[in-house]
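Note to self: keep these together.
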Amino acid sequence: MTGNVMPGGSTACCTHRVLRLAWLCVLLPIAAGMVFILGYLSLYGVDPQPRRSYHVSYPHPYHFILDEPDCCLGYQTPFLVLMVPVAPGNLVSRQVIRRTWGKEGVVLGRAVRVLFLLGMPGGAGVERQQEELKTESLEHHDLLQSDFLDSYFNLTIKTMVMLEWLSSRCPNASYAMKVDSDMFVNVHNLVSMLAAPDTPTRNYITGQIARFSPVHRDPASKWYLPTEAFPSFIYPPYVMGFCYVFSLDLPGRILEASRHVRAVHIEDVYVGMCLEYIGVLPTNPPASDLFSDKVLAYSHCSYSSLIATMTSGSDLLMGLWEDFQKPGPTCPPSWRHLLIQALHRNWSTKLRKN
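Structure:
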């Protein structure tokens, strides 16, 4: 009948309104949270789109929050700077390195400096972590922290920020090494190699070199790069990122190249792309077994003949370092090592004559 209201109509209408209001109360905080997260990721150098897995925000004006701007000035200018990228929360690795190969300040009469490179901590307890890092920095004066989010997909940013620091803060050093925090480094052998008269002082980068390395096209791989990010199916030669050494003329040149070469998340590949742009090829080390990305079984003789090798943990590194400092047996070089060194000297002599 016209003008009459169906029984329950008013109740149904109110129910629908209540449900709509309830959904709004649920969805609005979620939408606001997503906006905040996307803004945070954009601010700290992470592309929130799926393509973040292969493109990163570099070049970008990142800034140092913790810095040691004077550690390379004047009489303190080191011959060699060891740069260790490490997660903000990985205090254990930093302490072990400080107590082992990182404590060698003068080697073969040449100054050596160890610095740890960090991004911003993420997750719960960020403010507490940051305060702890400030305290650690005041105690040890060896932390460099920049304002990007410290994550696997920002390793390229971390490496480029390292090069920025070396170029601006430490241009008068002779060499630098980028070395992961889970490595054993024989600093004596490293300095000995770099101080050799046939070691180049310019356009020099060495380590374990990857040549003719195929591009990963499997989207499930963490090293995946699609064709639009890297059209070729073979990477240019590059030094593997766990450990490499370079002359201090290169950071500025690589940074200049980065203005023309779009950054991808695979940091060692990206450094190789920049080197290709400026026409610099990695140099073979004097022996192929000086740098190892494998965990080698410890013996005093084997570790006395290498420069860097991966370890299986900080506890092991501490233990083997204590043994490594003890007087060891006389270790004759292997025939393979002698042969490679002889071939390297012969090749270097030919290059100088030409």
